[in-house]
Amino acid sequence: MDTPIGNSIESLRTFFVENVSKFCDKCGTAYKPDNIDIVSESNASVIIQAQCDNCKGIYMAHVIKPLQMTKKIPIRLDIAHTLLHPYYLLGPISSDELLALRKKLAKIKTREEFLKLTTN
Ligand SMILES: [Zn+2]
Fold first, then answer.
1. Which of 3, 19, 43, 86 gets the most CB atoms within 10 Å of its CB?
2. What is the pLDDT of residues 85-99, one digit of tens each?
3. What is the DSSP string of 19-59?
């Protein structure tokens, strides 16, 4: 585990394959560079996601940079992995945001009103 972790996506992909996992835990298919994406990166850590080409199983690894500790966990997502990063950047949803949304949803009477709310 002495591979230096740089900031480029290629070095993180290489780090993932060399130090975290070469193969899908579920079906054993080898990961290709395109299967591996960075969800988030800070000075202290990086979250790397890998999606299997064959079974579409998704795994995430949280890499602590100074110690290079890693843990790979399976994760089930109902959104495409390309959508995950923008949601991650939004941060956690607050209870105030949820309550405001609930109020708006309760007022909806028609499909058009719902579409107007969800596209704004
Ligand atoms: Zn697989």
1. 19
2. 777 778 888 999 999
3. II-SB-TTT-PBP-GGGEEEEEE-SSEEEEEEE-TTT--EE
